[in-house]
Every structure is written in C-alpha cells, then in structure tokens.
Write a structure and sequence with these properties.
Length: about 850
C-alpha cells in the first residue's frame, strides 16, 4: 500500500496533471523501415518494426513459453506474389521478466522495442502490408492495454533482376570555387552518400591490421600541387569487433577534403579512390573503388587578389568566419573551411550575460513564490504549531536544523529532476506543442485547484507514517518534522512548486535546483526565525479568510500565466489560435476578476466564515484592487496596438496583432531590401523593419547593397528576444541604424516549418539531419559561433567574417548603439 502511495506522490508532485482523465491510452507508438529502399528482384531485405514505449510501461515480446498468458506481439502479412518471407519474425534483445499475474516467465521490452522480418523480393511492384497486435502494461497503476495497427511498406523501389553487385556508397565531387587564378588555393571535396544500415571506413585511424581505409590517389600533373593531405570531416568512433581495434567511420554521409594550389592552366586533376563499406545487419562488407575527375574549374591569369583564402585580412582574436561549408546545404556553394583564421568564439563569452541574468531572475521569482506560499491557508497556521514544537525543547540548534531540512528536501527534489531538464531537451520542451500543452494544462489545473474547484492532496497513509517518524527525538525527528510540514502543506505549495519546475523545464540543469533552493529558502526562513525567537509570534496576524484570498489570487495568476505556454507552441507552429489581442483579452478579464474579487464582488467555495460574510473591505484590499485595476487599464490600449513594453517578453509579437491601429506610424520610411524575403508570409520583423529570414538570401542582399549584415538569432519562445525588440530596437537611435546601415536577418531557431527534402542537410555538429527552418538556423549558430543562447546578435561583413564581438541580451540602449556603430566602423575600415 505504501509503495502505491509513493507512486501517487511522484505523479502528483512531478507531473501535476493526475486530475486529468485520459480517455484513450496509447503507450506504444510504432514506426517501420526497411534495410534498403532501392533494390532488385531477387534481393533479400529486412523489414524493421520499431515501437517507442512510454515511461513505466512495457511491451510483451513475440515469443516466450507462457502459453496461457498475456497477448504476445504478433505480425500478420497479407500474402502477395511480389515477396516471400524468410523465416519468422525476430525480436531484438527483449528482457526476461516473471509475470506475477499469469505466474509464468515472459519476455518484454521497455523504452524501445524492435522486431525484424527478412523477405525475398520476387516481383515488381512490391506490395508489403499487414497488421500487428500487441499488449502493453504498467505496474504503476496495474493497467494493461491491448493494441493493434496496420503497416505498409510503400517506399521500396524495385528495378530489374537481382543485383549481383552491392553498391552501398555513391560518390560525388565538388570544389570550393569554379573560377580561380594561378596561385590560388582550392579545396577539392569528395562526398559519399551511404545506404541505411551501412557504414564507410575513414581514411585515418590507428588500427594497423584491420579494414581497408578510404584512400585517394592523385595523378601527377604540373598544373597543381597538393597542400597537405586528405582530411576526413567529422568521422565518428567505433570499436570493430572483427579486427578488435578502434576505427573511425561515417554513417549516412561522408566527406573528405584535399587542398591544392593552382600552378598553371589548363588545370588537370584526376585520380582514383578505394574504400570499404560494411553492415552489421547482415555482417557483409564490400570493397570498391572508383575514378574522379575535376574538369569544371576555370583558370584565368595570375594569382587572384580576391582569392578565397588570401583576399581577406586576418581575423582579429575572438572573431570567426561563418563557415557555410560546415553546414553542407545541398544547394549552397561550398566555401573553404581554411578561411577561418581566428580562434573559435568562446561560448561562455556569448552566453554569460543572458544566462546569468536569466538564472538570477528565475531565482528571485522562485524566492517570491516561496514567500507567497507562506500566506496560504495550508501553511500559515503551521507556523504557531512549529514554534510550540520547539519551545518545549528549547533547542535553537534543532530549530536551525529544521529550516535546513526544509531546504534540503526541496533542493533534492530539484536535483533529481535536473537531468531531465538540461540543455539537451531545452529546445524541445520550450517549443514542441506536446510539452507546452502539458505545461499549459498543469498551470490551469493548479489554478483551478487554488480557486477551490478541487484540492490536490497526498495519500493520508503516507503522511501518517512520516508523522510517526517525526515523533522520534534528535535530528532524525527534526528532519521528519520538516518532511511532515512539506507533505501537509502540499495542497497549497504543490501548485507553486509544480509551476516552478515546469518553468525551469526549458532551461539549464541548474534551473530546477536553483528554483527549488530559492523557493525552500524563502519558505524555511520564517519557520526557523519564529522557532528561534518565539516571542515574535505576537506580531503575526491571526489566521482567517484573508489566507484563502491570497490563495484565490494566486490561482488567477497561475491561469493567466498558463497561456504563455500555449502561446509559445502557437507561434512555433503558426496555428494562429492565440494571437496577441486574444492573449491580452484573457489577461484583461483575469485581472479584472482579481480586482472584483478583492472588492468582494463575488465569493468562491473556499470563502467561508465571518470574513466572507463581512462586507467591510480593508484598506489593504482596496489598495491591491487599485493596483489590479490600474494593470487592467494599462493592458487595454494594447488591444489597439500599444507596445506594452513592460510585458513585451510575455506576450505574442506585434506581428500577430489584428487590431494594430498604430501600425501605419511604425511603417513610415521602411528600409529597402533586394527581393521578396523567403518565409515572409509567416515570419515578421518588428517596428516596420524590412529584412530577411534566410541567411543565404540576406547575405546576397548585403553584398549587393554593400552593407554589413545584422544577424538576429531569435525564437518564438524567447522572452528576452521580445523584450529586446520592444525596449531596445524600438528606440529611435537603434531603429534608424538598423534601417539605414544594415541588412537585417532574423533567424528563428525554434520554427517548426519543415523545408523541402532537397534542402535538408546533415549537421557536422551532431550528425543529425536538419529538416526544419529552426533546426537549420540553430545548427548555423552552434556549429559556427559556438553559442546556443537567444537573443544573440552578430554583425557580419560581406566576407562572412564577424566584425565585432557578438551582443547577447542587454537592455542598455547606449551599449547596443555602441555595438552597431563599432560594427559599421569596422566594416568601413575593411572595405
């Protein structure tokens, strides 16, 4: 019974949405793929079925000896003359488990599951379809869910008869420049596209007796000379079990570069290459070779004065060239990576200001939440009870340890959650629609709880057991006394704590720890001080209906803040369901309800007793109502386009506003741009600025207008970005410079718009395919500037070199003007 209560505790405390009823459970999500998608009649391929299983759930495998037991995973194939099955379905590495319900041994999967079926292709077109059934269970609630689905492999292309020659790697070549002069240096680029489930060995690794390395042989010619050796670009490490040594390989795509110096015309670059590719799926290896010829390079005259590697002045320390070659966009021209002459930008330099302010701001927010928790009906009456506990014992040391125990309990909770909320998941949690809708629901549930619709409580049995431990003497009793306070006050502190944890989910690992430490510090200090100095109790106001008033006001505030999360998802996916005026209307209504409630205009379920019956309104309530209604009046002009700078970071951008009556004034004298910006139908710049949302397009315009490029790395869910735009960009000095002196490009790192497949690329930073606008922009920032914080402003010359140190979040207008002027001045000095 205790274990079930503990599970209930974790669900309520860390998720906060246990009061929501799910109508349909779907704990397993299925995908399919094939070992090859371009085959011939007679080939054998493997069909792969994968399932992603929710946390705390498990899926039964396809084979185990328990006959009268749970439903096994089964796959039924529709018979077709185009293929035949080879053997049966194979479950990949299930784990053993003893099933107590059916009293037998079974095999299960947790987290992920994989099943494989080998087939032989007999004819074209290939038609592979069927259905599957399965069962998933959880010991958390004792639930089991059977499921089924259909599968269809419709992307496998079949051509001709059985292939006798495997060709898992297809090679292409290109150069960093197609027109050079004698004396220039050019980079030759060799690329390989590698079939799924195959890998290619690199050109260099320490394994002497092992697989064949990729090797390039150049034919000697007087028209060029090699500069250095062949360079593999970002291979990955692998331990080769066959040769028992460490090797370097490529998966998906491979790239090698060779620099040459052009000596004369005509330029003749030819040779051959050999390589080896292998697959762990069938344990096959293929050794192959090929020839290359670079015949598209035009050589004119003597050494170029504007060559890629030689034309630009040295990059000053702490500056870096944005190397588009490292992005590997299929449609982009490749530039020589050797043009980076300065060191890479130190990421701590770029992130220090913005992240530091963000963490300290979050610390203060959590601290004030802890103070607010003291004024709730579950907590305030506990102060005299705590004092009476320590007064009889007369130990000030124990009182201090009591407060320290409260801090430790809450901080440990934050430390446990920290690994789940680190930078790897930051972008996903802060912009994906599912996490943000969950966070939105959490805040709504907590807000309704504070309004009195229901009460979130912990299991009474668990609380009683902890309370029994508190009756023990010594420091053990003190610790459990603190633990009892935390548990008993949960119905009031739970929503506040949950809100802090949710707010930290899109930040660094330190955020949940710092947030819980700050909350518990504010929460523990009064208990500790009153326990040490019990005479101070006389100055405290008596408990009463005012405590429920505090709770209700906090509930309204939580409901208003909930729409911030819904707004983030709405902007990232362009749903247009919560534009600026809709968000403002909600806030105006909620704030007005707070003011009316403070003036005793209506009562809620928790308002009982003499305080609720008494129609007299205290001066404090009137003062708070005045502040609330003043806030309402401040919000109202925003419905017609007022910028509301104080709230800029928490509201959707002005571009989503339909009632913007002030837009005409902001669009006077717009700056000129070269062509129609890509993505301008759903992405916008503030304050009537004209600009771009694609780096290549903006750079081309900057070169055409001979202006420096102002790069704004931003995001739909970036609060500080909106604040910078509203409070700094709007300043006449800044806006004038942005319009007249720069070409502006806003690169959204969290936009979810998927690009055509021809524009996808594989990142050199994390080796993942970047398919969306946001993923590609984020990769540009991380791979080339060693920075992933927003806002982040970079001034770039026409040669793509960073002109001055990039600018992070800084609300000082003078500093921003200085940043722009220094960049403009540096641009002029280099041109």
């Amino acid at each position: 019974m205790l274990s079930r209560n503990l599970f209930s505790l974790f669900i309520l405390f860390f998720v906060g949405i246990s009061t929501l009823d799910a109508q349909v459970l779907n704990p397993a999500k299925w995908t399919t793929e094939a070992s090859a998608n371009d085959i011939r009649v007679g080939d054998e391929i493997t069909l792969i079925f994968k399932a992603t299983i929710d946390h705390n759930w498990y899926l039964y495998s396809s084979e185990f000896p328990c006959e009268d037991g749970p439903i096994k995973t089964a796959f039924t194939f529709q018979p077709d003359k185009s293929f035949e099955r080879i053997g049966g379905i194979v479950a990949i590495n299930p784990t053993d488990k003893h099933d107590k319900i059916f009293e037998c041994d079974v095999k299960i999967f947790k987290g992920t599951a994989e099943f494989r079926q080998k087939i032989k292709v007999l004819a074209s077109p290939l038609k592979i379809s069927g259905n599957y059934e399965y069962q998933v269970c959880t010991e958390l609630t004792g639930q089991c869910v059977p499921g089924d689905g259909e599968f269809l492999f419709d992307r496998i292309k079949v051509t001709g008869s059985k292939s006798q020659v495997l060709n898992p790697a297809k090679w292409t070549t290109e150069t960093s420049s197609s027109e050079v002069k004698a004396g220039d240096e050019v980079t030759l680029i060799f690329k390989a596209t590698i079939d799924h489930n195959w890998y290619l060995y690199s050109s260099e690794f320490t394994c002497e007796v092992g697989p064949n390395k990729t090797d390039f042989t150049f034919q000697s010619d007087k028209s060029y000379e090699k500069v250095g050796g062949i360079i593999p670009i970002n291979p990955i490490d692998k331990h080769d079990k066959n040769f028992d040594c460490d090797v370097k390989i490529f998966k998906g795509k491979a790239e090698f570069r060779q620099k040459i110096k052009v000596l004369s015309s005509p330029l003749k670059i030819a040779g051959n290459y050999k390589y080896q590719v292998c697959t762990d799926l069938t344990n096959q290896c293929v050794t192959a070779d090929g020839e290359f010829l670079f015949d598209g390079i035009k050589v004119t005259g003597s050494k170029s004065q504007v060559s890629i590697a030689k034309s630009q002045p040295p990059t000053p320390k702490s500056q870096v060239l944005i190397d588009t070659a490292s992005i590997q966009h299929p449609s982009s021209s490749i530039q020589d990576a050797s043009t980076i002459t300065g060191p890479q930008l130190d990421p701590t330099f770029a992130q220090f200001d913005s992240n530091g302010k963000s963490l300290w701001g979050f610390f203060l927010l959590a601290f004030f939440a802890g103070l607010a928790a003291l004024l709730t009906p579950c907590v305030f009456p506990m102060i005299p009870m705590t004092v009476s506990f320590f007064t009889g014992r007369g130990s000030k040391f124990q009182a201090v340890m009591y407060g320290l125990s409260i801090v430790i309990i809450y901080t440990v909770i934050g430390a446990v959650l920290a690994p789940l909320m680190g930078p790897e998941t930051a972008n996903h949690l802060s912009t994906e629609w599912i996490p943000n809708l969950i966070f939105f629901s959490v805040f709504i549930v907590f807000g309704l709880s504070f309004l009195g619709l229901f009460e979130i409580t912990l299991p009474g049995t668990f609380i009683n057991k902890v309370d029994q431990q508190a009756e023990k003497g010594g420091l053990t009793g003190v610790f459990f006394m603190a633990f009892t306070l935390v548990l008993v006050s949960f119905s009031c502190t739970g929503p506040l704590v949950g809100s802090i944890l949710v707010s930290s989910a899109g930040g660094e690992v330190l955020k949940p720890i710092m947030g819980m430490f700050a909350f518990s510090l504010a929460f523990a200090i009064p208990f500790t001080l009153f326990a040490v100095f019990p005479n101070w109790l006389k100055s405290l106001p008596k408990s009463g209906g005012w405590l429920n008033t505090v709770k209700v006001v906090l509930g309204f505030i939580e409901i208003a803040l909930a729409f911030k999360f819904l707004s983030i998802a709405d902007q990232a996916f362009h749903w247009h369901i919560l534009d600026r005026e809709i968000n403002l209307a909600i806030w105006i209504v909620v704030a007005a309800l707070i003011g009316i409630y403070l003036m005793k205009g209506f009562r809620l379920p928790g308002d009982t007793g003499k305080d609720a019956e008494d129609k007299t309104i205290s001066v404090l309530r009137v003062s708070l109502a005045i502040i609330t209604f003043t806030f309402v009046v401040y919000l109202i002009p925003g419905m017609w386009g007022a910028p509301l700078k104080a709230l800029a970071g928490y509201l959707p951008p002005m571009s989503t506003h339909d009632f913007d009556l002030l837009a005409a004034n902001r669009k006077d004298n717009p700056n000129e741009i070269c062509d129609v910006p890509k993505f301008a139908d759903f992405l916008h710049l503030p304050h009537g600025l004209n600009g771009y949302f694609d780096y290549k397009q903006a750079l081309a315009c900057a070169r055409q207008q001979h202006k420096p490029l102002f790069i704004d790395f931003t995001g739909h869910g970036c609060t500080n970005c909106r604040e910078m735009e509203a409070r700094v960009w709007s300043d006449p000095q800044v806006l004038k410079r942005l319009k007249e002196d720069f070409v502006v490009v806003a690169l959204y790192v969290d936009d979810k718009t998927e690009l055509p497949e021809s524009q996808w690329f594989t990142s050199k930073y994390d080796h993942k395919v970047k398919k969306t606008i946001g993923k590609q922009n984020a990769d540009l920032q991380i791979a080339n500037l060693n920075n992933n914080a927003q806002p982040f402003y970079v001034l770039v010359g026409n040669d793509e070199r960073v002109l001055v140190s990039p600018k992070p979040y800084d609300l000082t207008i003078e500093n921003f003007v200085k940043f722009l002027d220094e960049g403009k001045g540096k641009f002029k000095s280099l041109n």
